[in-house]
Hints:
single chain; 246 residues; alpha/beta; Rossmann fold; seven-stranded mixed β-sheet; 9 strands; 20% strand; globular
Amino acid sequence: MTQLYDTIGTHYAKYRRPDPRIAAAITAAIGDARRVVNVGAGAGSYEPKDRDVVAVEPSETMIAQRARDAAPVVRASAMSLPFRDGAFDAAIALLTIHHWPDQRAGLLEMVRVAKRCVVLTWEPSPSSSWLTRDYFPEILAYDRTVFPPASSYYGLLLKKVVVRPVLIPHDCTDGFLEAYWRRPESYFDPRARLAISSFARLADVDSGLTALRRDLDDGTWARRNETLMNETELDLGYRLVMGEKA
């Protein structure tokens, strides 16, 4: 993961700006927790400003993009958090767990250091969106192997596990994979793609982009997806998983 983001994370902070609606959902999930550790923190998106936050991030490139007033950051791995047991009220991991080489170990570390765990993740499915269904099925095939299903969070020393959908607004400011579902032209921006790890793993991006360009130009995309243009938010498989320590 460190090597990946040292390569692709150069313009991450510009294209992955926190969306206030997603931020509100995360804040609600954190609840009244005062001491929070952000695991796989990246450039610091969605770190609450009104809490005592410590960030954990392995990539120097990502750390360099953190704002001057961002939470203090420790360069470390999710699989070996350098904190004592129960040091935090809540541990958050936001669109990061799919990069962890040992997801169970990382989650157990979160449970060890915090009373509450909040994970923002994705449950890829063929119905997620036109992007992976029609143009980049390789992304769907790979991401289904690295994003754990929500059911896998049960039994990790957690109780009261709750899974909630996170609806993605059509003008989402956080440019993750499915964020541009009503703005297909955005996927032609190489820097936007560079801020999406799923594209970095593709051996062949050009074929999908060529097909998308053709379908946009001849109206095929519009005909297939005309109903989307009336939607302001969609359930694209993004989930907030919340649990309390047993």
